[in-house]
């Protein structure tokens, strides 16, 4: 479908806002080039926190505030929070645009594109930091844990630090069915994958940007099954990886991308199980 100017209205489009920077582009590569021209290259150990969103008006503003406070309180002064929004239908776009006026937040709007993993990777591609943190917007990943992830990454000179719900000090605060399913899925995944990772589906990581972009991802993802491939590829690539404990809190507001339903849990098991077998046994 085209409009009066002849442009395809169904084509992928991006918009980026941060401080006085306002860029529109037709691809993430074009967006990155535009950012590089107008924004200073970040210092070493500059941190980019990447947060994908879709209809998170009840959470995203508080998350941005809590993240900023947590990073500043830990003495991490060189950071940006990149919120990658998939054309939300609520007030999320306007909230992140207002937050972007400070220059510490980058609001990335994706139109005619959808998907949590592609949103994360687009955020990483436009990031100015050499260190990136990947986390959810729904309050399940505590912002207070982000400085610890970064500190471990830098002080121990690691390639990746992953937050785990299954180490001592970690845990899951969620309805019984959701908690039981998560524990069961991860137990099976740990057995089949054969690596030392304790949490394969937490989705909460700090990683060196260049290392992440060098990984060869081969499978599209619908939900959080991308995490299995991320960890599997990182382990096989010889990344130095450590885990730190965290307590997962089931979302308080907003529409969950993974609703608490039996139908979802069976679908969840199918997608994760399929990805696990693809990674473990496909060439």
Fold topology:
Layout: E1 13-18, E2 21-25, H1 28-38, E3 47-53, H2 60-73, E4 79-85, H3 92-100, E5 105-111, H4 116-126, E6 131-134, H5 146-155, E7 160-164, E8 171-173, H6 176-193, E9 205-208, H7 209-214, H8 226-236, E10 241-245, E11 247-249, H9 262-281
Key structural traits:
20% strand; 39% helix; 283 residues; Spore Coat Polysaccharide Biosynthesis Protein SpsA, Chain A; two-stranded parallel sheet; 9 helices; 9-stranded mixed beta sheet; alpha/beta
Kindly describe this structure:
Helix 3 links the parallel strand 4 and strand 5. It is globular and about 50 Å long. The chain has 283 residues and is α/β, with parallel strands linked by helices. It has one domain: Spore Coat Polysaccharide Biosynthesis Protein SpsA, Chain A, CATH 3.90.550. Helices cover 39% and strands 20% of the residues. The strands form two sheets. A nine-stranded mixed sheet has the order 2-1-5-4-3-6-9-7-10, with helices on both faces.
């Amino acid at each position: 479908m085209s409009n009066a100017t002849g442009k395809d209205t169904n084509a992928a489009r991006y918009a980026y806002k941060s401080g006085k920077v306002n860029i529109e582009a037709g691809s993430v590569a074009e967006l990155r080039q535009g950012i590089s021209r107008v924004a200073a290259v970040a210092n070493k150990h500059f941190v980019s926190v990447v947060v994908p969103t879709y209809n998170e008006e009840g959470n995203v503003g508080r998350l941005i505030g809590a993240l900023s406070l947590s990073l500043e309180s830990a003495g991490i002064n060189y950071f940006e929070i990149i919120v990658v929004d998939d054309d939300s239908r609520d007030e999320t776009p306007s909230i992140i645009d207002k937050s972007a006026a400070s220059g510490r937040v980058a609001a990335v709007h994706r139109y005619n594109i959808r998907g949590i993993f592609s949103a994360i990777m687009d955020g990483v591609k436009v990031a100015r930091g050499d260190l990136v943190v990947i986390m959810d917007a729904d309050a399940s990943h505590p912002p207070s844990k982000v400085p610890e992830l970064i500190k471990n990454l830098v002080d121990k000179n690691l390639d990746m630090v992953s937050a785990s719900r299954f180490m001592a000090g970690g845990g899951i605060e969620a309805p019984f069915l959701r908690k039981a399913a998560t524990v069961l899925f991860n137990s099976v995944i740990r057995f089949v994958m054969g690596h030392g990772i304790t949490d394969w589906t937490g989705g909460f990581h700090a990683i060196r940007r260049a290392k992440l972009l060098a990984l060869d991802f081969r499978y599209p993802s619908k939900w959080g099954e991308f995490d299995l491939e991320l960890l599997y590829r990182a382990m096989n690539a010889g990344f130095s990886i450590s885990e730190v404990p965290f307590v997962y809190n089931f979302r308080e507001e907003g529409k969950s991308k993974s609703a608490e339903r039996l139908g979802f849990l069976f679908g969840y098991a199918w997608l994760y199980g399929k990805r696990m077998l693809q990674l473990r046994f496909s060439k």
